[in-house]
Specification:
By secondary structure, this protein is an alpha/beta fold. The protein has five domains: 2-111, PriA, 3(prime) DNA-binding domain (GIY-YIG endonuclease, 3-Layer(aba) Sandwich), CATH 3.40.1440.60; 125-179, Arc Repressor Mutant, subunit A (Orthogonal Bundle), CATH 1.10.10; 198-371, Rossmann fold, CATH 3.40.50.300; 382-422 and 482-620, Rossmann fold, CATH 3.40.50.300; 628-708, Alpha-Beta Plaits. Helices cover 32% and strands 22% of the residues. The protein contains 21 helices and 30 strands. The strands form seven sheets. A seven-stranded parallel beta sheet has the order 11-12-10-13-14-9-15, sandwiched between helices. Strands 16-26-25-17-24-23 form a six-stranded parallel beta sheet, with helices on both faces. β3 and β4 form a beta hairpin. α5 packs across α6 (162-169) and α18 (597-603) packs antiparallel against α19. The radius of gyration is 29 Å and the shape is globular.
Length: 714
């Protein structure tokens, strides 16, 4: 017999420990097994195996512990290698998550260590068993195909019809099932080898010669960062090694994929959440077989099973999308650094507006710093601040309307950014002034006029658009505020001849919708691209000569220490989409805060000056990167119990001489009360250890989660 240690499939922190079982055969680390846990059949991940010696038997007998045998071995071979097994344990410690949560994040659904995993899809293959004595011409054509290799039965039937069935019936052709494999698509090189500019050559040589493996690549929008990524990826491929290029938004994936395929002429591996479960599984297998050495993906691609990794790129590294919002709450940058330490590869953190944490570390020499000074082609757009004029129009000022009309007349394209989806964020009674809220969350319902619904953007609750106030019964309600749907309606009213594409999370739910909408805009099938922040990054369309950013004031005035940084990033990134061809672009910020330092510095595209100014405020408040934060969130259906346990945790933390803010009531979300504590300190390891000792308390009835180095306060 053998003693094995496993992690159970449940991701809760309370079960974040190893459990021991017996097995008649040795089981390799990284193999899934089925076990009986508290009288339930569960999937578990094997992390240790040793002979069940007499000494071990005596130990468990003395401790009066009866070990159960495993029920079943799920995998013939390990699905996680040694590097990923160790990485999962490390990330769990650093992010204060369970180890199983990390393992489940690493794998596609077909391989996940939980009971909801699905078997991989299979396809029926046709195999030539023996040659018939008599044969028709059509049957001969079938055999000619099968002499070369086994073929997919459905494809053969489509091509040759009943001739295939006859050969199967007579026993000359047999069939069998195999796991469905990825059908690679042929691509030809479209882009000629690119000659780096002098500035790019200098940056490229600086990256290669730097003693640092982690480098911040800073340069304004359009300065040629993507070409450097491709050159470095090409170097990796020539060495027979792998390159991973991460983008923050699924919307950017098709653009980066096209750049890679045009350059290298191969079917690049793609990995993101909009793929089906089976597609993700196939792409995962392609990484294992090294079918392509270049991978383009979003956050989850950082976990893929590389074994010869030479380059990791985080494009637009400042973006919050690189931080996972639920357990395990990891940042892709941190995982990239761990994997770089394992493989000895370079990590490029590229952005026109690097995160303060990255830029501060680069200035201190913790990371390398490489700069691209200016745009490769074209010049930076002219930026103007225009005040809103609600008497003229509730959305567009007179100057904005004139600027849009000018571009339409010149057959040029326009980008309009509003970081709020839906039609209106508030639906209010004009009599009692109450606003319609979600019954499951302490959130207002948003009007979605297209579908005639009110929607909660927190829990996805929907209800038909009501005509009567639920509080006082009055039959007149008004919509307050603007969302992308309302802007789209106003554009169609003001410019009926213009074709508008709207890109937000409502219009991009379909498969390949991001690629389809962006492709249509790139081909000039539309004049205006309207959307949320997903259109502010990475787009490179030369005919876009006007960018209009609406309602940036709400972002600047949020009660979050990162709010000004986020607003500045959004303004600079959106401004960078304009004037990327030979015509100078124009950018309009529609704002009543024209003298705000973030707006003034965004007009000058002066990130270093903004960094210095904002860091002075961060220092005054001792906010990151001058300190570290850990959020602790307690959730329970009983608000009083949740509050009681939160205050109890506050006392425990303060007894450890920690600076603790809260607990604050975050309001109801999905029918659960939530309370948050914020732990602040200079020594991350110290506060992390102290928080771990409190949140792993198995006596707590509330569900507890921790977020180390959170990206947002609210």
């Amino acid at each position: 017999m053998h003693l094995i240690d496993v992690y159970i499939e449940h991701k809760t922190i309370k079960l974040n420990s190893r459990f021991s079982y017996l097995s008649s055969e040795p089981i390799q680390r990284g193999t899934r097994v089925k076990v009986n846990f508290h009288n339930q059949s569960c999937i578990a991940m094997t992390v240790a195996c040793q002979p069940y010696t007499p000494e071990l038997q005596k130990h468990y007998t003395d401790e009066k512990i009866t070990l159960k045998e495993i029920l079943e071995v799920v995998d013939p071979t390990p699905i996680l290698n040694e590097e990923l097994l160790a990485l999962g344990e490390t990330v769990a410690l650093e992010s204060l998550s369970s180890v199983m949560a990390c393992y489940q994040s690493m794998l596609p659904k077909m391989l996940k260590p939980n009971s909801a995993y699905r078997e991989a899809r299979v396809e029926t293959m046709a195999h030539l068993d023996h040659e018939p004595l008599k044969i028709t011409e059509k049957q001969m054509a079938v055999l000619d195909e099968l002499r070369l290799e086994d073929r997919i039965l459905s494809v053969l039937r489509k091509e040759f019809g009943s001739a295939v069935n006859t050969l199967i019936k007579n026993g000359q052709v047999t069939t069998y099932e195999r796991e469905m494999t990825y059908q690679a698509k042929p691509f030809e090189k479209v882009a000629m080898p690119y000659e780096l500019s002098e500035a790019q050559k200098t940056a490229y040589e600086a990256i290669l010669s730097s003693p640092k493996n982690i480098l911040c690549l800073y340069g304004p929008t359009g300065s040629g960062k993507t070409e450097l990524y491709l050159k470095l990826a090409e170097d990796a491929m020539l060495k027979g090694k792998q390159a991973l290029i991460l983008v923050p938004e699924i919307a950017l994936t098709p653009l980066m994929i096209k750049r890679v395929q045009d350059r290298f002429g191969q079917d690049v591996i793609v990995y993101h959440s909009h793929l089906s479960d089976h597609e993700r599984y196939l792409q995962y297998q392609r990484v294992l077989t090294k079918e392509s050495l270049v991978v383009v993906g979003t956050r989850s691609a950082i976990w893929l099973p590389f074994d010869k990794l030479d380059l990791i790129v985080l494009d637009e590294e400042h973006d919050h999308s690189y931080k996972q919002e639920n357990a395990p709450r990891y940042h892709s940058r941190d995982i990239a650094i761990h994997r770089a330490n394992t493989f000895g590869c370079k990590v490029i953190l590229g952005s026109a507006t690097p995160s303060f944490e990255t830029y501060a570390r680069a200035l201190r020499g913790v990371y390398g710093l490489v700069s691209l000074p200016k745009r490769i082609s074209g010049i930076l757009p002219k930026v103007t601040v225009i005040p809103p004029d609600l008497r003229f129009n509730p959305i567009f000022s007179p100057k904005a309307v004139m600027a849009i009309q000018d571009r339409l007349t010149l057959n040029q394209q326009i980008l309009i950014l509003l970081n709020r989806r839906g039609y209106a964020p508030i639906y209010q009674c004009v009599s009692c002034f109450s606003s319609v809220s979600c019954p499951h969350c302490d959130r207002l319902l948003n009007v979605h006029r297209e579908s005639g619904q009110l929607k909660c953007h927190s829990c996805d609750y929907t209800t038909p658009l009501i005509k009567v106030c639920p509080v006082c019964g009055h039959d007149e309600l008004r919509m307050i505020g603007i969302g992308t749907q309302k802007v789209e309606a106003e554009l169609k009213k003001l410019f009926p001849q213009a074709k508008v594409i709207r890109m937000d999370s409502d219009s991009t739910t379909g498969k390949d919708s991001h690629a389809r909408l962006l492709g249509a805009f790139e081909k000039h099938e539309a004049d205006v691209l309207l959307g949320t922040q997903m259109i502010a990054k990475g787009l490179d369309i030369p005919n876009v000569t006007l960018s209009l950013i609406l309602d940036i004031d709400k972002s600047l005035l949020r009660t979050d220490y990162r709010s000004v940084e986020d607003a500045f990033d959004l303004m600079v990134q959106a401004a960078g989409r304009s004037g990327r061809g030979q015509i100078q672009g124009e950018v309009l910020f529609q704002s009543a805060l024209k003298d705000h330092y973030a707006i003034q510095l965004a007009i000058r595209h002066d990130y270093p000056a903004f960094f210095n100014k904002e860091m002075s405020y961060r220092k005054l408040g001792q906010n990151p990167p001058y300190s570290f934060l850990i959020y602790i969130t307690l959730t329970h259906s009983d608000p009083e119990l949740c509050a009681h346990e939160a205050f109890g945790m506050l006392e425990n933390l303060r007894a450890k001489n920690l600076e603790v803010l809260g607990p604050s009531d975050l309001g109801k979300l999905k029918d659960l009360a939530r309370f948050r504590l914020i732990v602040k300190g200079k020594d991350l390891d110290q506060i992390r250890l102290a928080v771990a000792s409190v949140i792993y308390d198995k006596g707590l009835k509330s569900d507890v989660s921790a977020d180390v180095n959170p990206m947002a306060v609210l």
